């Protein structure tokens, strides 16, 4: 289905695996395109209720393929035409997206993980703001997401110093939902994503949208958004099921509708 990514739907979870393991899943134009198309496919498929992004082999993604650029390339165009549309597919997605970070996430590979809603890290994972080492600046939304996740001072420190961050350090900074032993990584990532897939999908979409909007909104405008969102959520079958299940003292069976 895709040249450089594997797309599989397991149950109600779509798995997107970046598949250039020999280059530590470095981005080419094709991989940018494949990730964007795969996220779009999963977003549109009503049977999919959670999405996982991960990497084949020992890395999550090593950022731009440095062998695939030449110095005459306009990097601004590369970002506008390749990276930004990929990030925007993730940004627009109403379903929960988990980055299952199996190994190193460097440069734009780190940006990709930051754009996701959750990061489950293998103990072998690491983050590297590689950009500074090649005289560039973090891109693909990196400096948009990073300060929102860990604050301005730490974001600046990571971006400027470009030191490798271990999985445990990433967890301490607030960059990871959890860190899991390598041998349980796939199982735990799947369990986490499947748990999200069994939850009230529309509520998750509204939570995502509202949290993002909170950064650009005044309180009055935001309270109005709360009211609009709750109106939408209260009309879902999942809301009705949740209340019924509570009253009947049983576990709710949410359908994402
Ligand atoms: O158009 C634009 O350029 C604008 C967009 C820029 C966005 C960016 O992402 S800029 C940042 C680009 N990424 C990097 O600078 C990271 C470069 N890679 C590394 O620093 C290291 O490879 C890692 C820290 C990620 C991993 O180190 P290690 O020691 O575990 O592995 P390695 O031996 O360095 O790499 C293994 C192979 O993958 C190796 O190939 P070989 O020698 O076995 O044939 C290496 O060259 C290749 N590889 C790793 N990263 C990249 C790569 N090849 C091309 N591009 C890469 N980014």
Automatic annotation (TrEMBL):
- Give the domain of life: Bacteria
Q: Which GO terms describe its molecular function?
A: isomerase activity
Q: Does the keyword Isomerase apply?
A: yes
Residue ranges spanning the membrane: these are none
Supply the Gene3D superfamilies for this chain: 2-enoyl-CoA Hydratase, Chain A, domain 1, Lyase 2-enoyl-coa Hydratase, Chain A, domain 2
Cited InterPro entries: ClpP/crotonase-like_dom_sf (IPR029045), Enoyl-CoA_hyd/isom_CS (IPR018376), Enoyl-CoA_hydra/iso (IPR001753), Enoyl-CoA_hydra_C (IPR014748)
Keywords in alphabetical order, please: Isomerase
Indicate yes or no for the key word Amino-acid biosynthesis: no
The similarity comment for this entry is:
Belongs to the enoyl-CoA hydratase/isomerase family.
What's the protein name?
Answer: 2-(1,2-epoxy-1,2-dihydrophenyl)acetyl-CoA isomerase
């Amino acid at each position: 289905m895709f040249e450089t990514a594997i797309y599989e739907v397991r149950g109600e979870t779509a798995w997107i695996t970046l598949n250039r393991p020999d280059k530590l899943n470095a981005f080419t134009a094709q991989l940018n395109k494949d990730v964007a198309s795969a996220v779009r496919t999963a977003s549109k498929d009503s049977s999919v209720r959670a999405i996982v992004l991960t990497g084949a082999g020992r890395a999550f993604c090593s950022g731009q393929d440095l062998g695939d650029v030449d110095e005459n390339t306009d990097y601004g165009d590369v970002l506008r035409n390749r990276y930004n549309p990929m990030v925007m597919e993730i940004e627009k997605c109403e379903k929960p997206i988990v980055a299952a970070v199996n190994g190193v996430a460097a440069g734009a590979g780190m940006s990709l993980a930051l754009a996701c809603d959750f990061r489950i890290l293998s103990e072998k994972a690491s983050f590297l703001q590689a950009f500074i080492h090649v005289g560039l600046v973090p891109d693909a939304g990196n400096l948009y997401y990073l300060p929102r996740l860990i604050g301005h001072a730490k974001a600046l420190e990571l971006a400027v110093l470009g030191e490798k961050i271990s999985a445990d350090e990433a967890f301490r900074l607030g960059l990871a939902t959890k860190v899991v032993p390598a041998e349980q990584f796939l199982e735990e990532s799947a369990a986490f994503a499947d748990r999200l897939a069994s939850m009230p999908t529309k509520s998750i979409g509204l939570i995502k949208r509202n949290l993002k909007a909170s950064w650009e909104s005044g309180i009055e405008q935001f309270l109005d958004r709360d009211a609009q969102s709750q109106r939408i959520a209260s009309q879902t079958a999942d809301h009705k099921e949740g209340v019924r299940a509570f009253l009947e003292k049983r576990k709710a069976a949410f359908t994402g509708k």
